[in-house]
Design brief:
- 38% of the residues lie in helices and 14% in strands.
- It has 14 helices and 13 strands.
- Helix 2 crosses helix 10 and helix 3 crosses helix 10.
- The structure holds pyridoxal-5'-phosphate.
Protein backbone atom coordinates (compact mmCIF):
# COMPACT_ATOMS: atom_id res chain seq x y z
CA UNK A 1 0.00 0.00 0.00
CA UNK A 2 1.29 3.46 -0.86
CA UNK A 3 1.48 5.36 2.42
CA UNK A 4 2.03 8.76 0.78
CA UNK A 5 0.18 10.78 -1.84
CA UNK A 6 3.21 11.48 -4.01
CA UNK A 7 1.21 13.42 -6.62
CA UNK A 8 0.27 15.92 -3.92
CA UNK A 9 3.75 15.95 -2.44
CA UNK A 10 5.44 16.48 -5.80
CA UNK A 11 3.18 19.46 -6.51
CA UNK A 12 5.16 21.35 -3.83
CA UNK A 13 8.40 21.07 -5.83
CA UNK A 14 9.83 22.56 -9.03
CA UNK A 15 12.20 19.74 -9.96
CA UNK A 16 9.54 17.41 -11.51
CA UNK A 17 8.76 20.08 -14.12
CA UNK A 18 12.43 20.02 -15.09
CA UNK A 19 12.03 16.30 -15.86
CA UNK A 20 14.54 15.29 -13.22
CA UNK A 21 14.67 11.86 -11.62
CA UNK A 22 16.15 12.90 -8.29
CA UNK A 23 17.65 9.78 -6.77
CA UNK A 24 20.62 11.23 -4.91
CA UNK A 25 18.69 12.31 -1.83
CA UNK A 26 21.13 10.95 0.74
CA UNK A 27 23.41 13.80 -0.36
CA UNK A 28 20.74 16.53 -0.31
CA UNK A 29 16.98 16.74 -0.80
CA UNK A 30 15.06 19.21 -2.93
CA UNK A 31 13.48 22.34 -1.39
CA UNK A 32 9.71 22.84 -1.70
CA UNK A 33 8.66 26.07 -3.44
CA UNK A 34 7.10 27.42 -0.22
CA UNK A 35 10.46 27.41 1.55
CA UNK A 36 12.19 29.36 -1.20
CA UNK A 37 9.17 31.72 -1.19
CA UNK A 38 9.46 32.07 2.57
CA UNK A 39 12.81 33.82 2.18
CA UNK A 40 11.04 36.29 -0.12
CA UNK A 41 8.22 36.71 2.41
CA UNK A 42 10.74 37.64 5.10
CA UNK A 43 12.19 40.39 2.88
CA UNK A 44 9.92 43.30 3.99
CA UNK A 45 10.88 42.62 7.63
CA UNK A 46 14.51 41.71 6.95
CA UNK A 47 16.55 42.60 10.05
CA UNK A 48 19.18 41.16 12.36
CA UNK A 49 18.16 39.35 15.57
CA UNK A 50 18.92 40.45 19.14
CA UNK A 51 20.45 43.61 17.67
CA UNK A 52 17.81 46.29 17.40
CA UNK A 53 14.66 47.71 18.93
CA UNK A 54 12.78 48.15 15.64
CA UNK A 55 9.56 46.28 15.00
CA UNK A 56 11.34 44.53 12.13
CA UNK A 57 14.15 43.32 14.39
CA UNK A 58 11.75 42.20 17.12
CA UNK A 59 9.58 40.42 14.58
CA UNK A 60 12.53 38.61 13.01
CA UNK A 61 13.90 37.78 16.47
CA UNK A 62 10.56 36.24 17.47
CA UNK A 63 10.48 34.08 14.32
CA UNK A 64 14.10 33.06 14.78
CA UNK A 65 13.67 32.14 18.45
CA UNK A 66 10.43 30.27 17.75
CA UNK A 67 12.39 28.16 15.24
CA UNK A 68 14.37 26.71 18.13
CA UNK A 69 11.07 25.67 19.79
CA UNK A 70 9.97 23.93 16.59
CA UNK A 71 13.28 22.07 16.29
CA UNK A 72 13.17 21.11 19.98
CA UNK A 73 9.59 19.82 19.59
CA UNK A 74 10.60 17.82 16.51
CA UNK A 75 13.28 16.03 18.51
CA UNK A 76 11.17 15.83 21.69
CA UNK A 77 13.93 17.79 23.43
CA UNK A 78 12.98 19.37 26.77
CA UNK A 79 13.26 22.87 25.26
CA UNK A 80 15.10 25.33 23.05
CA UNK A 81 17.99 25.47 25.56
CA UNK A 82 19.13 22.07 24.25
CA UNK A 83 19.40 23.18 20.62
CA UNK A 84 22.36 24.84 18.92
CA UNK A 85 22.45 25.55 15.21
CA UNK A 86 25.52 25.31 13.03
CA UNK A 87 26.18 25.17 9.29
CA UNK A 88 25.74 21.40 9.01
CA UNK A 89 26.22 18.07 10.79
CA UNK A 90 29.97 18.30 10.33
CA UNK A 91 30.23 21.63 12.10
CA UNK A 92 27.89 20.44 14.88
CA UNK A 93 30.15 17.43 15.56
CA UNK A 94 33.23 19.67 15.48
CA UNK A 95 31.48 21.93 18.01
CA UNK A 96 31.20 18.96 20.39
CA UNK A 97 34.83 18.05 19.81
CA UNK A 98 36.10 21.57 20.55
CA UNK A 99 33.76 21.98 23.52
CA UNK A 100 34.98 18.75 25.10
CA UNK A 101 38.63 19.23 24.20
CA UNK A 102 39.68 20.61 27.57
CA UNK A 103 37.80 17.87 29.45
CA UNK A 104 39.91 14.98 28.17
CA UNK A 105 42.42 13.48 30.59
CA UNK A 106 45.61 11.67 29.73
CA UNK A 107 44.77 7.99 29.15
CA UNK A 108 41.12 8.54 28.10
CA UNK A 109 39.74 7.06 24.92
CA UNK A 110 37.06 7.79 22.32
CA UNK A 111 35.21 4.92 20.67
CA UNK A 112 33.70 5.33 17.23
CA UNK A 113 32.98 2.93 14.36
CA UNK A 114 34.18 1.87 10.93
CA UNK A 115 30.71 2.76 9.62
CA UNK A 116 31.10 6.47 10.15
CA UNK A 117 30.91 9.25 7.65
CA UNK A 118 34.21 11.14 7.80
CA UNK A 119 32.34 13.90 9.65
CA UNK A 120 32.07 11.60 12.66
CA UNK A 121 35.51 10.09 12.30
CA UNK A 122 37.96 12.77 11.18
CA UNK A 123 37.19 15.20 14.08
CA UNK A 124 37.93 12.38 16.55
CA UNK A 125 41.03 11.38 14.61
CA UNK A 126 42.17 15.02 14.72
CA UNK A 127 41.45 15.28 18.43
CA UNK A 128 43.31 12.10 19.36
CA UNK A 129 46.13 12.13 16.81
CA UNK A 130 46.74 15.81 16.07
CA UNK A 131 45.38 18.20 18.71
CA UNK A 132 45.72 16.54 22.12
CA UNK A 133 49.23 15.17 21.46
CA UNK A 134 50.36 18.78 20.94
CA UNK A 135 48.96 19.55 24.38
CA UNK A 136 50.86 16.62 25.82
CA UNK A 137 47.80 14.41 26.35
CA UNK A 138 47.42 10.90 25.04
CA UNK A 139 43.86 9.93 24.17
CA UNK A 140 43.27 6.78 22.16
CA UNK A 141 40.83 6.48 19.26
CA UNK A 142 39.19 3.06 19.01
CA UNK A 143 37.15 1.81 16.07
CA UNK A 144 34.39 -0.79 16.25
CA UNK A 145 34.11 -2.97 13.16
CA UNK A 146 31.08 -4.05 11.14
CA UNK A 147 30.08 -7.52 9.94
CA UNK A 148 29.77 -8.92 6.42
CA UNK A 149 26.37 -7.27 5.90
CA UNK A 150 27.43 -3.85 7.18
CA UNK A 151 25.87 -4.20 10.64
CA UNK A 152 27.81 -2.75 13.53
CA UNK A 153 29.50 -5.47 15.57
CA UNK A 154 28.08 -4.62 18.99
CA UNK A 155 30.20 -7.23 20.80
CA UNK A 156 33.31 -5.63 19.36
CA UNK A 157 32.03 -2.19 20.34
CA UNK A 158 31.37 -3.41 23.88
CA UNK A 159 34.88 -4.86 24.07
CA UNK A 160 36.37 -1.44 23.22
CA UNK A 161 34.45 0.53 25.86
CA UNK A 162 36.08 0.63 29.28
CA UNK A 163 36.20 2.93 32.29
CA UNK A 164 38.42 5.40 30.41
CA UNK A 165 35.97 5.76 27.51
CA UNK A 166 34.79 9.33 27.76
CA UNK A 167 32.77 9.35 24.58
CA UNK A 168 31.12 6.91 22.18
CA UNK A 169 30.34 8.38 18.74
CA UNK A 170 28.13 6.41 16.43
CA UNK A 171 26.13 6.91 13.29
CA UNK A 172 22.35 6.56 13.58
CA UNK A 173 22.33 5.17 10.04
CA UNK A 174 25.18 4.34 7.68
CA UNK A 175 25.21 6.44 4.52
CA UNK A 176 26.83 3.53 2.68
CA UNK A 177 25.08 0.34 3.85
CA UNK A 178 21.87 1.94 5.15
CA UNK A 179 22.23 -0.06 8.37
CA UNK A 180 20.86 1.40 11.59
CA UNK A 181 22.86 0.46 14.69
CA UNK A 182 20.68 -0.32 17.72
CA UNK A 183 21.04 2.92 19.67
CA UNK A 184 19.50 1.58 22.88
CA UNK A 185 22.12 -1.18 22.98
CA UNK A 186 24.86 1.34 22.28
CA UNK A 187 23.54 3.52 25.12
CA UNK A 188 23.74 0.52 27.45
CA UNK A 189 27.32 -0.21 26.32
CA UNK A 190 28.32 3.43 26.89
CA UNK A 191 26.71 3.33 30.35
CA UNK A 192 28.52 0.13 31.31
CA UNK A 193 31.89 1.84 30.84
CA UNK A 194 31.29 3.96 33.94
CA UNK A 195 33.57 6.90 33.02
CA UNK A 196 33.45 9.58 35.75
CA UNK A 197 32.33 12.72 33.88
CA UNK A 198 33.03 16.19 35.35
CA UNK A 199 29.25 16.66 35.62
CA UNK A 200 29.11 13.81 38.16
CA UNK A 201 27.64 11.16 35.85
CA UNK A 202 29.45 7.85 35.60
CA UNK A 203 29.14 6.72 32.02
CA UNK A 204 30.51 7.46 28.56
CA UNK A 205 28.81 10.26 26.70
CA UNK A 206 26.96 9.17 23.56
CA UNK A 207 27.00 11.22 20.38
CA UNK A 208 24.77 10.14 17.49
CA UNK A 209 25.28 11.33 13.93
CA UNK A 210 21.65 11.36 12.77
CA UNK A 211 22.28 12.88 9.32
CA UNK A 212 20.86 9.78 7.60
CA UNK A 213 18.41 8.83 10.35
CA UNK A 214 16.51 12.10 10.75
CA UNK A 215 15.11 12.27 7.17
CA UNK A 216 13.00 9.11 7.54
CA UNK A 217 12.38 8.58 11.28
CA UNK A 218 10.81 10.43 14.18
CA UNK A 219 13.62 11.12 16.62
CA UNK A 220 12.99 11.27 20.35
CA UNK A 221 16.21 12.37 22.01
CA UNK A 222 14.82 11.77 25.51
CA UNK A 223 13.75 8.21 24.74
CA UNK A 224 17.11 7.56 23.06
CA UNK A 225 18.86 9.16 26.03
CA UNK A 226 21.60 10.47 23.75
CA UNK A 227 23.93 13.17 25.04
CA UNK A 228 24.50 14.72 21.63
CA UNK A 229 22.72 14.31 18.32
CA UNK A 230 23.46 16.10 15.06
CA UNK A 231 21.75 16.31 11.67
CA UNK A 232 21.60 18.58 8.60
CA UNK A 233 18.49 20.29 7.29
CA UNK A 234 19.65 20.16 3.66
CA UNK A 235 18.81 16.44 3.78
CA UNK A 236 15.35 17.30 5.14
CA UNK A 237 13.93 19.58 2.43
CA UNK A 238 15.38 22.88 3.72
CA UNK A 239 17.78 25.06 1.73
CA UNK A 240 21.49 24.55 2.38
CA UNK A 241 23.23 26.06 5.39
CA UNK A 242 21.82 24.81 8.70
CA UNK A 243 22.67 21.86 10.90
CA UNK A 244 21.45 21.08 14.38
CA UNK A 245 23.21 20.00 17.49
CA UNK A 246 20.98 18.68 20.24
CA UNK A 247 22.77 18.31 23.57
CA UNK A 248 21.58 17.68 27.09
CA UNK A 249 21.13 20.98 28.83
CA UNK A 250 23.54 20.28 31.66
CA UNK A 251 26.26 19.51 29.11
CA UNK A 252 25.71 22.77 27.26
CA UNK A 253 25.65 24.56 30.61
CA UNK A 254 28.94 22.99 31.64
CA UNK A 255 30.81 23.07 28.31
CA UNK A 256 32.92 25.80 26.84
CA UNK A 257 31.48 27.26 23.66
CA UNK A 258 32.94 26.27 20.31
CA UNK A 259 32.92 29.84 18.92
CA UNK A 260 33.44 33.07 20.80
CA UNK A 261 32.26 36.60 20.00
CA UNK A 262 29.08 38.67 19.97
CA UNK A 263 25.62 37.61 21.17
CA UNK A 264 26.97 34.59 23.05
CA UNK A 265 27.78 37.00 25.90
CA UNK A 266 25.36 37.95 28.68
CA UNK A 267 24.20 41.52 28.10
CA UNK A 268 26.98 43.81 29.33
CA UNK A 269 28.83 40.78 30.70
CA UNK A 270 32.31 41.69 29.45
CA UNK A 271 35.01 43.31 31.58
CA UNK A 272 38.75 43.35 31.14
CA UNK A 273 38.87 40.46 33.63
CA UNK A 274 35.79 38.33 32.96
CA UNK A 275 33.27 37.35 30.32
CA UNK A 276 29.84 35.97 31.24
CA UNK A 277 28.10 33.69 28.75
CA UNK A 278 24.58 34.32 27.51
CA UNK A 279 21.66 32.05 28.45
CA UNK A 280 21.13 28.86 26.48
CA UNK A 281 20.86 28.39 23.60
CA UNK A 282 22.39 31.78 22.69
CA UNK A 283 25.65 30.89 24.46
CA UNK A 284 26.26 28.79 21.32
CA UNK A 285 25.35 31.40 18.68
CA UNK A 286 28.47 33.54 18.37
CA UNK A 287 28.10 36.26 15.76
CA UNK A 288 25.18 36.94 13.49
CA UNK A 289 23.61 33.55 12.82
CA UNK A 290 22.08 32.19 9.62
CA UNK A 291 18.77 33.80 10.56
CA UNK A 292 16.73 33.10 7.44
CA UNK A 293 18.26 29.66 7.12
CA UNK A 294 17.21 28.71 10.66
CA UNK A 295 13.70 30.08 10.10
CA UNK A 296 13.35 28.21 6.79
CA UNK A 297 14.75 25.02 8.35
CA UNK A 298 12.24 25.00 11.18
CA UNK A 299 9.47 25.76 8.72
CA UNK A 300 10.66 22.83 6.58
CA UNK A 301 9.67 20.54 9.45
CA UNK A 302 6.25 22.16 9.72
CA UNK A 303 5.75 21.97 5.95
CA UNK A 304 6.76 18.32 5.93
CA UNK A 305 3.81 17.60 8.23
CA UNK A 306 1.44 19.56 5.97
CA UNK A 307 2.68 17.81 2.82
CA UNK A 308 1.93 14.38 4.26
CA UNK A 309 -1.21 15.10 6.31
CA UNK A 310 -3.98 17.65 5.90
CA UNK A 311 -2.58 19.94 8.61
CA UNK A 312 -1.62 23.64 8.56
CA UNK A 313 1.57 24.00 10.58
CA UNK A 314 3.59 25.82 7.92
CA UNK A 315 4.04 29.55 8.53
CA UNK A 316 3.10 29.31 12.21
CA UNK A 317 5.01 28.81 15.42
CA UNK A 318 2.54 26.91 17.61
CA UNK A 319 3.29 23.58 19.28
CA UNK A 320 3.80 20.49 17.13
CA UNK A 321 1.89 17.47 18.45
CA UNK A 322 4.17 14.48 18.95
CA UNK A 323 1.56 12.17 17.50
CA UNK A 324 1.57 14.10 14.19
CA UNK A 325 5.37 13.96 13.94
CA UNK A 326 5.38 10.22 14.65
CA UNK A 327 2.56 9.46 12.21
CA UNK A 328 4.10 11.50 9.39
CA UNK A 329 7.59 10.09 9.83
CA UNK A 330 6.21 6.54 10.05
CA UNK A 331 4.50 7.10 6.70
CA UNK A 332 7.64 8.61 5.17
CA UNK A 333 9.63 5.67 6.52
CA UNK A 334 7.20 3.10 5.05
CA UNK A 335 7.04 4.82 1.68
CA UNK A 336 10.79 5.12 1.30
CA UNK A 337 11.29 1.53 2.56
CA UNK A 338 8.92 0.30 -0.18
CA UNK A 339 10.87 2.22 -2.80
CA UNK A 340 14.13 0.79 -1.49
CA UNK A 341 12.82 -2.78 -1.55
CA UNK A 342 11.67 -2.24 -5.14
CA UNK A 343 15.08 -0.89 -6.07
CA UNK A 344 16.84 -3.87 -4.47
CA UNK A 345 14.53 -6.28 -6.31
CA UNK A 346 15.19 -4.51 -9.63
CA UNK A 347 18.95 -4.49 -9.16
CA UNK A 348 19.01 -8.13 -8.05
CA UNK A 349 18.07 -9.15 -11.62
CA UNK A 350 21.24 -7.60 -13.02
CA UNK A 351 24.17 -9.98 -13.44
CA UNK A 352 27.49 -9.20 -11.78
CA UNK A 353 25.92 -6.42 -9.70
CA UNK A 354 26.66 -6.44 -5.99
CA UNK A 355 24.58 -4.51 -3.45
CA UNK A 356 26.28 -3.62 -0.15
CA UNK A 357 24.40 -3.91 3.12
CA UNK A 358 21.44 -5.93 4.40
CA UNK A 359 17.87 -6.23 3.12
CA UNK A 360 16.34 -3.81 5.64
CA UNK A 361 17.96 -0.41 5.43
CA UNK A 362 17.44 3.32 5.17
CA UNK A 363 16.43 4.44 1.67
CA UNK A 364 19.74 4.10 -0.08
CA UNK A 365 21.33 1.37 -2.16
CA UNK A 366 25.07 1.31 -2.85
CA UNK A 367 26.31 -1.12 -5.47
CA UNK A 368 29.14 -2.05 -7.81
CA UNK A 369 29.13 -3.90 -11.11
CA UNK A 370 32.04 -6.13 -12.07
CA UNK A 371 34.23 -4.52 -14.68
CA UNK A 372 32.55 -1.08 -14.68
CA UNK A 373 33.80 1.78 -12.57
CA UNK A 374 31.13 3.26 -10.23
CA UNK A 375 31.93 6.66 -11.72
CA UNK A 376 31.26 5.36 -15.24
CA UNK A 377 27.94 3.94 -14.02
CA UNK A 378 26.86 7.23 -12.42
CA UNK A 379 27.84 9.16 -15.54
CA UNK A 380 25.99 6.69 -17.77
CA UNK A 381 22.93 7.00 -15.50
CA UNK A 382 23.09 10.76 -15.78
CA UNK A 383 23.06 10.47 -19.58
CA UNK A 384 19.83 8.48 -19.13
CA UNK A 385 18.38 11.19 -16.86
CA UNK A 386 18.97 9.42 -13.53
CA UNK A 387 20.77 11.24 -10.74
CA UNK A 388 23.08 8.99 -8.74
CA UNK A 389 26.28 9.43 -6.81
CA UNK A 390 29.53 7.57 -7.22
CA UNK A 391 32.38 7.74 -4.75
CA UNK A 392 33.05 6.66 -1.21
CA UNK A 393 30.28 8.96 0.07
CA UNK A 394 32.76 10.05 2.77
CA UNK A 395 32.39 6.55 4.27
CA UNK A 396 36.01 6.01 3.36
CA UNK A 397 36.89 3.66 6.22
CA UNK A 398 34.11 1.23 5.30
CA UNK A 399 34.95 1.27 1.58
CA UNK A 400 38.59 0.60 2.39
CA UNK A 401 37.71 -2.14 4.90
CA UNK A 402 35.91 -3.95 2.08
CA UNK A 403 39.00 -3.65 -0.10
CA UNK A 404 37.14 -1.75 -2.80
CA UNK A 405 39.57 -0.46 -5.40
CA UNK A 406 38.91 2.33 -6.16
CA UNK A 407 37.21 2.88 -2.76
CA UNK A 408 33.91 3.70 -4.43
CA UNK A 409 30.36 2.50 -5.04
CA UNK A 410 27.43 3.92 -6.99
CA UNK A 411 24.50 4.95 -4.79
CA UNK A 412 20.80 5.56 -5.45
CA UNK A 413 18.82 7.13 -2.61
CA UNK A 414 15.17 8.03 -2.17
CA UNK A 415 13.03 10.64 -0.45
CA UNK A 416 9.34 11.10 0.24
CA UNK A 417 8.70 12.61 -3.20
CA UNK A 418 10.10 9.65 -5.17
CA UNK A 419 7.73 7.27 -6.91
CA UNK A 420 7.88 3.61 -7.94
CA UNK A 421 8.31 4.95 -11.50
CA UNK A 422 11.48 6.78 -10.44
CA UNK A 423 12.83 3.52 -9.04
CA UNK A 424 11.96 1.58 -12.20
CA UNK A 425 13.52 4.24 -14.41
CA UNK A 426 16.67 4.08 -12.29
CA UNK A 427 16.95 0.29 -12.28
CA UNK A 428 16.13 0.11 -16.01
CA UNK A 429 18.88 2.66 -16.63
CA UNK A 430 21.37 0.53 -14.67
CA UNK A 431 20.31 -2.52 -16.71
CA UNK A 432 20.71 -0.61 -20.01
CA UNK A 433 24.09 0.69 -18.90
CA UNK A 434 25.32 -2.84 -18.28
CA UNK A 435 23.83 -4.12 -21.55
CA UNK A 436 25.35 -1.19 -23.47
CA UNK A 437 28.74 -1.99 -21.99
CA UNK A 438 28.48 -5.64 -22.93
CA UNK A 439 27.50 -4.75 -26.49
CA UNK A 440 30.38 -2.28 -26.69
CA UNK A 441 32.74 -4.93 -25.29
CA UNK A 442 31.75 -7.59 -27.84
CA UNK A 443 34.25 -8.04 -30.71
CA UNK A 444 33.07 -6.39 -33.91
CA UNK A 445 32.87 -8.72 -36.93
CA UNK A 446 36.00 -8.63 -39.05
CA UNK A 447 38.10 -6.90 -36.41
CA UNK A 448 40.67 -9.00 -34.59
CA UNK A 449 40.96 -8.60 -30.83
CA UNK A 450 44.36 -7.61 -29.54
CA UNK A 451 45.40 -9.65 -26.54
CA UNK A 452 47.86 -8.80 -23.85
CA UNK A 453 50.60 -11.17 -22.82
CA UNK A 454 48.33 -12.38 -19.98
CA UNK A 455 45.75 -13.33 -22.55
CA UNK A 456 43.26 -10.62 -21.59
CA UNK A 457 41.72 -8.56 -24.38
CA UNK A 458 42.97 -4.98 -24.30
C1 LIG B 1 25.91 9.92 7.98
C2 LIG B 1 26.35 11.31 7.61
N1 LIG B 1 26.98 12.04 8.52
C3 LIG B 1 27.40 13.29 8.27
C4 LIG B 1 27.18 13.84 7.04
C5 LIG B 1 27.71 15.22 6.80
O1 LIG B 1 26.67 16.11 6.58
P1 LIG B 1 27.02 17.62 6.21
O2 LIG B 1 27.77 17.57 4.93
O3 LIG B 1 25.69 18.27 6.07
O4 LIG B 1 27.82 18.15 7.31
C6 LIG B 1 26.53 13.13 6.05
C7 LIG B 1 26.34 13.70 4.71
O5 LIG B 1 26.24 13.01 3.73
C8 LIG B 1 26.10 11.82 6.35
O6 LIG B 1 25.49 11.06 5.43
Amino acid sequence: MNSLDTTRIRSYFDFPAAGRVVTNNAASTQPPRELIGLLQRCAPWYENVHRGQSTASRRTTAMYEASFDTIAAWLNAPGRGCIATYRNTTEAINAVMYSLLTDFRDGDNVVTTMLEHNSNYVPWHALCREILPRLGRRVELRLARFDATGRLDLDHLASLVDKRTKLVCCTGASNFFGTKPDLSKIRAIADAGGYPQPTGERRALLLVDAAQLAPTSALDVQALDVDYLAFSFHKMLAPFGVGVLYAKRHLLDHALPFLYGGDMIADGGVTTETVAWNDLPWKYTAGTPNILGVIASAQALRLLLDMVMPTAFFGGSGPLPRVAIEEVMARVGRHTANLTARCMAGLSEIKNLRVYGPEHRTPLVSFTIDGISPFAIAEALDRRGIEARAGCHCATLAHRALGLDPPATCRLSFALYNTPDDVDLATDAVRETVAGRRRAGRPRPGRAQVSTAAGRPT
